[in-house]
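[STRUCTURE TOKENS]
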Amino acid sequence: MNIKGLKVLVVGAGISGRGAVRLLSDVGAEPILFDMSDKAVVEDMHEQVSFYVGELPEHVEKSIDMVVLSPGVPTDIPFLDSFRERHIRIWGEVELAYEFSKGSLLAVTGTNGKTTTTALLGEIMKNYVKKLGKGEVFVVGNIGDAYTAEALKTGEDSITVAEISSFQLETIERFRPGVSAILNITPDHLNRHHTMENYVAIKEKIAMNQTEEDTIVLNYDDEYTRRFGKETKAKVVYFTVKDDWKQAEIKGDILHLDGSVIYYNEEKIIDVNDMQLIGSHNYENVMAAAGMAASYGVPTDLITETIRSFKAVEHRIEFVETVNGVDYYNDSKGTNPDAAIKGIRAMRKNTVLIGGGFDKKSEYDEWIDSFDGKVKLLILLGQTAEDIADCARRHGFDRILMVQDMAEAVREAAKASSPGEAVLLSPACASWGMFKNYEERGRVFKEEVRKLQ
């Protein structure tokens, strides 16, 4: 699409918005950056770009030819109505990046596990292009650099590995990965997507433009993705950690766990005891990454070797320190109950659990039930603390302590734990309100842990 000379309004001044501005400038458009927060600041924009905060002047609004939304901007806000009435094209940052990128695209979505799967897949593909002696791998999306910041660097031999959220999938039009994956779908972001049905439909949009020439990797153990496997046009590769698939008629390929060994159909990929990742949820992440890489044509031995050496990503059940015989784990990326369930299930010791944060209208019953005698104390902070405490008491769990901030949470966790036990930050909630993002929350946790030494 030729957008040279068009006035393009970029809504949202975060990493994605700034990446979009740079791309638009480079292709000859006239970007105008706007953030609805009157406190927004942009310190690292070198381009001569108009920047408005709080409210967009009417004369500017009427001059706009196209709108690009950052992922954090809801698509149903009244601000966008006037643009829709004038039939102004509204794209997301991901659609803009896709339009101007080249080479192959592998895209990962799902409620949980996206970051680990994308990071592992990125490492596999980097090792693959190194073996080939040509090409370059770009790992983009929520995991690191904005897709828009890297799109113009890609070439015909490039491989882009993208972590794609439901917020980004809302606005796609022609976005088409050659290999995609939906890892799982559990309730999340319902404050934005409103209904579970809408959330599921948005996740499934990752395959909206895929054809029989493309591949999608799906979780056979998830009822939503298993059903979608019968509806998508793309070739389906399933993965499972259960045995149910053996009684089913599955057409196509499947990655499965037999004892402690992961197989792709009948070919051994790796024994999970040889992995540095812990927890059964990571077996799923590994299967998804392996299935995507294999579908692209990466040799099995290279996939296996990369998995064997791969370590957990920051903020996802990340080992921090052992202090006075107590192991501390940072699972700040556990921003919803289902992710936090995986965090607590990965623990092998009595655990002091730190949770709570921003209210995304989640329900916490299954999270509390997953404690299963393993959690000796639940320390709560943030907006959801009282709601979580009430839920825990309804389920018969009353070993609860309320705190004001992360520093107090870590100090109290240290007091309550004994040598041979663990402390886990796995909040089951978003970080907003107390922290800028889950990364900052995780870093603060780690800083406080290291102060204990």
In short: The domain at 7-92 is CATH 3.40.50.720 (Rossmann fold). The chain is about 35% helix and 20% strand. The radius of gyration is 23 Å.
